[in-house]
């Protein structure tokens, strides 16, 4: 995802803002921030867009303070792996199809 911060988009500031949010959420879930990503965040602190500057500064501050990041982006059940029982689901859907 880091390479997306280097690309040009039709509305660059807005798109990069969404990419930056995604990267920050991934960092919060994994607890890891690769050096190239940190360098890109540092570069965004001087971007022409004040919104991107603020997001980058906030992201870097949260990365330095892991407990703050965990409070802002808590891990919840939506991040857990789910086991899907395909056969059971298939049988249920088939029986529903025959009822109608």
Can you tell me the residue ranges where pLDDT is under 50 for at least 5 consecutive residues?
Answer: none
Question: Largest sheet, described in full?
Answer: none
Please tally the β strands and state the result. Answer: 0
| Secondary structure category | mainly alpha
Cα-atom radius of gyration: 20 Å
Order of helices and strands: HHHHH
Shape by Cα distribution: globular
Helix content: 55-70%
**Number of DSSP helical runs:** 5
Quote the beta fraction.
under 5%
- Tally of discrete structural domains: 1
Q: Tell me, rounded to a whole number, the average pLDDT.
A: 79
Ends apart, CA distance between termini: 45 Å
Looking at this protein, list some descriptive labels.
100 residues, 5 helices, 0% strand
Description:
- The chain has helices at 12-30, 35-44, 50-64, 66-72, 86-99.
- It is built from five helices and no strands.
- It is globular and about 55 Å long.
- The chain has one domain (2-76).
Give the structure's gist in a few sentences.
It is built from five helices and no strands. By secondary structure, it is mainly α.
SSE topology sketch:
Layout: H1 12-30, H2 35-44, H3 50-64, H4 66-72, H5 86-99
Helix pairs in contact: 1-3, 2-3
């Amino acid at each position: 995802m880091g390479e997306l911060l280097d690309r040009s988009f039709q509305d660059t500031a807005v798109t990069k803002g969404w990419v930056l949010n995604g990267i920050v959420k991934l960092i919060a879930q994994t607890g890891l921030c690769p050096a190239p990503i940190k360098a890109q965040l540092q570069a965004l602190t001087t971007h022409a867009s004040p919104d991107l500057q603020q997001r980058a500064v906030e992201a870097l501050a949260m990365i330095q303070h892991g407990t703050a990041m965990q409070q802002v982006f808590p891990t919840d059940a939506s991040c857990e792996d789910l086991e899907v029982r395909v056969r059971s689901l298939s049988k249920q859907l088939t029986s529903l199809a025959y009822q109608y």
